[in-house]
């Protein structure tokens, strides 16, 4: 089973990560900065970094799983 | 010699934290309340919405049963140690754990549930009944909860745990201020100087 099919089957579950990414990014950056502009800009960058990290981690796990 | 007003100095040194210990305690009780006490309205509202929203959503997904306190040998609910970080909204679980220590109340509640007269506090944040023997064939209440809620039991637990942990960060910010406040102040000073020049 390829990664796209796997994600398609569990796409409903993947969406539950989205509000968590938004909230974690906002709260974490709010503890680093005081001004709303810096918080929002930092949260956007941190959120993208989180998504990227999750995609890379998922890809690594997928490639490990197909070799098992 | 340039005159520097006290207001200017206060603004450059970061936010006025007032009483940091009191702010931390208020921030634990209700997420964001410590910041509102310090007059940091934007951050207070942001913490309130984000943390309480996450906690409420998790509690809703878990049918009001994923936040409960239990140290029974067959059901040590360690997730509650994270959930308690959210403060007042998680405290009813402690009251419920105390109330449902006796089996008599549990039996009364089960009777009410059977005739369809269950009240809100008969189920909300109540520790589920667990059997002493894990190999017992008859499913206990915790098994039933997992069967009814399916993955939403774990999902709700994760959401409420993350809300509690995020509030720990918010409390730290209420007590100590933001991590990069000095850098932001330096940047403002540099901008002001360049504008003057």
In brief, what are we looking at here?
The complex is a heterodimer of chains A (68) and B (197). Chain A is an all-alpha fold and 68 residues long.
List keywords for this structure.
heterodimer; A: mainly alpha; 4 helices; elongated; B: 197 residues; 10 helices; disordered N terminus
Describe the protein's architecture and organization.
The complex is a heterodimer of chains A (68) and B (197). The longest helix of chain A has 31 residues, at 36-66. Chain A is built from 4 helices and no strands. Chain A is elongated, with a radius of gyration of 15 Å. In chain A, 82% of the residues lie in helices and 0% in strands. The chains are: A mainly alpha (68), B mainly alpha (197). Chain A binds chain B through residues 13, 16, 19-20, 23-24, 26-28, 30-36, 38-39, and chain B through 14-15, 40, 42-43, 46-47, 50-51, 53-54, 57, 151, 155, 159, 162, 166, 169-170, 172-173, 177-181, 184.
Summarize the helices and strands and which ones pair or pack.
The complex is a heterodimer of chains A (68) and B (197).
Chain A: H1 3-9, H2 11-14, H3 17-30, H4 36-66
Helix pairs in contact in A: 3-4
Chain B: H1 6-12, H2 20-29, H3 33-37, H4 41-61, E1 71-72, E2 75-76, H5 79-83, H6 92-99, H7 103-114, H8 141-149, H9 152-176, H10 181-196
Antiparallel strand pairs in B: 1-2
Helix pairs in contact in B: 2-9, 4-9
């Amino acid at each position: 089973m390829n990664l796209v099919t796997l994600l398609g089957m569990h796409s409903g579950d993947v969406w539950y990560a989205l509000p968590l990414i938004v909230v974690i990014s906002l709260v974490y950056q709010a503890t680093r900065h005081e001004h709303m502009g810096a918080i929002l800009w930092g949260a956007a960058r941190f959120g993208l970094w989180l998504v990227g990290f999750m995609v890379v981690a998922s890809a690594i796990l997928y490639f490990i799983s197909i070799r098992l | 010699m340039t005159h520097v007003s006290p207001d200017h100095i206060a603004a450059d040194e970061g936010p006025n934290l007032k009483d940091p210990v009191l702010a931390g305690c208020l921030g634990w009780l209700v997420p964001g309340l410590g910041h509102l006490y310090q007059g940091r309205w934007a951050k207070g509202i942001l913490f309130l919405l984000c943390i309480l929203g996450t906690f409420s959503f998790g509690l809703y997904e878990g049918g009001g049963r994923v936040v409960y306190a239990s140290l029974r040998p067959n059901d040590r609910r360690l997730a509650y140690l994270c959930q308690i970080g959210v403060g007042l909204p998680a405290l009813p679980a402690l009251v419920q754990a105390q109330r449902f220590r006796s089996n008599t109340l549990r039996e009364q509640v089960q009777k009410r549930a059977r005739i369809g007269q269950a009240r809100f506090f008969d189920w909300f944040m109540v520790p589920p009944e667990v059997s002493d023997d894990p190999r017992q064939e008859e499913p206990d209440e915790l098994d039933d909860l997992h069967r009814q809620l399916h993955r939403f039991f774990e999902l709700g637990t994760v959401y409420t745990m993350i809300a509690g942990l995020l509030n720990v960060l918010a409390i730290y910010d209420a007590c100590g201020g933001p991590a990069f406040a000095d850098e932001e102040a330096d940047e403002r000073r540099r901008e002001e100087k360049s504008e003057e020049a």
